[in-house]
Write a structure and sequence with these properties.
Sulfite Oxidase, Chain A, domain 2, Immunoglobulin-like, 8% helix, 34% strand, globular, binds ligand MTE
Length: 388
């Protein structure tokens, strides 16, 4: 937990240095290499707009360092972000519309939440039949400590009217022509949850440009899209927002679809909490082990539920053994897990992992198919060769 003094000190540094310390993405001239200040070793899934995936081998610490944290942008990042002129407007179904500046936000009591943020499309590349969209494999996910004022304290200042049922977020993204802006809403019950934040810090430092400087929503346990970056406007609505990124975007069918079927928007709902899921960080797919003893490890998470069990199979699912869960835990954060295994002989092996959560959900062998490949959560699987 960071102290209020540390929080204020760090944030006032951000005001002083705003503009200078948030370098823009720069491309190498020949276009073959992408240099992204602040990011290290991530897989570039898209350079326009920036979508960066964490390789699974980076899942080796409970808290993901910011340079390893995936980035998901639907459009251009704002070209100018200046804490000195930044404002957050609060309007709609409120008694007292507000405009807060950076200093106002810093003066509010901060709260810290350790949250696993996952893109709803993580794992989409494994969906069969294939689906369009960014082909994320395992790493559109990471865990960080997010800090900032509670959204409910801001809403309390504005005084939500009884007609206020949903809270809409709007960011400063630069919207290409003919593209609808990235605007979404969450229900008022989640907005006033004690852990829903307007985060200004990540892992103890100010947010970086890629992660939403100077402030972003942080809706713990829910799909990453709920956590709007570069926040500039909060509007309380009397009904759910129904723009493109709520409808038809980020919706899930109410009833299972046959693979290949289109989404019937009128028989679907907006995505909220994440699924139960585990991924294998090591060994990686196609790895050759020089030893019979293999340390199998990874992470498991379940949105707003707890992980109660992770099991590993080293014989393609015929038998399962319980993995050991890591000590570090927090309400909305993943659990690391590990399992030490001695291969009986030289050969090829398929290793699987599956997690079970406190709501009794277990990862399925095959994920429910949906046309955007959202919430993919089938058993994770890697194939390895044991050589000696
Ligand atoms: N907020 C804005 N303003 N614009 C965006 O494109 N992408 C969303 C969300 N917030 C997005 C946004 C999506 S889809 C995800 S998964 C998360 O940000 C990713 O957060 P990160 O880039 O900090 O990892």
């Amino acid at each position: 937990m960071i102290s209020r003094r540390d929080f204020l000190r760090g944030v006032s540094g951000a005001v002083a240095a705003a503009g200078a310390i948030h370098p823009l993405l720069t491309w190498a001239a020949d276009d073959s290499a992408v240099v992204i200040p602040g990011e290290e070793g991530l897989i570039v899934r898209s350079a326009r707009f920036l979508d960066l995936e964490m390789p699974p081998a980076f899942i080796d610490s409970w808290i993901t360092p910011v340079p390893h944290f995936f980035v998901r942008n639907h459009m251009h990042e704002p070209s100018t972000l200046d804490a000195a002129t930044w404002e957050l407007k609060v309007s709609g179904e409120v008694e007292k519309p507000l405009t807060l500046n950076f200093a106002d936000m810093v003066r509010m009591e901060p709260h810290t939440v350790t949250n696993t943020l996952e893109c709803a499309g993580n794992g989409r590349a494994f969906q069969r039949p294939r689906v369009p969209g960014v082909q994320w494999q395992r790493g559109a996910v990471g865990t960080a400590r997010f800090s900032g004022p509670r959204l409910r304290d801001i809403l309390h200042q504005a005084g939500v009217k009884p007609t206020g049922k949903h809270v809409m977020f709007h960011g400063l993204d630069e919207v290409p022509s003919k593209v609808p802006p990235f605007i979404r809403s969450i229900p008022i019950e989640k907005a006033i949850d004690e852990d829903t934040l307007i985060a200004m810090r990540m892992n103890g430092a100010e947010l970086t440009r890629h992660h939403g400087f100077p402030a972003r929503a942080l809706v713990p346990g829910w799909i990453g899209a709920a956590s709007c970056k570069w926040l500039s406007e909060i509007k309380v609505l009397d009904k759910e927002f129904d723009g493109n990124f709520m409808k038809p975007g980020y919706r899930y069918p109410n009833h299972p679809l046959k693979p290949g079927d289109p989404l019937n928007v009128d028989d679907s709902h907006p995505l909220t909490a994440l699924n139960v899921k585990s991924v294998i960080a090591s060994p990686t797919d196609d790895w050759t082990s020089k030893s019979r003893t293999v340390n199998i490890h990874g992470a498991a998470w379940a949105g707003d539920a707890d992980i109660v069990k992770v099991e590993v199979s080293t014989d393609s699912g015929a038998t399962w053994q319980a993995a050991q869960l890591g000590r570090d835990r927090a309400k909305y954060a993943w659990r690391l897990w590990s399992h030490s295994w001695k291969a009986p002989q030289v050969g090829d092996y398929t290793i699987l992992s599956r997690a079970t959560d406190s709501q009794g959900r277990t990862q399925p062998e095959t994920a429910d198919w949906n046309p955007s490949g959202y919430l993919y959560n089938a058993y994770d699987q890697v194939k390895i060769h044991v050589a000696t």
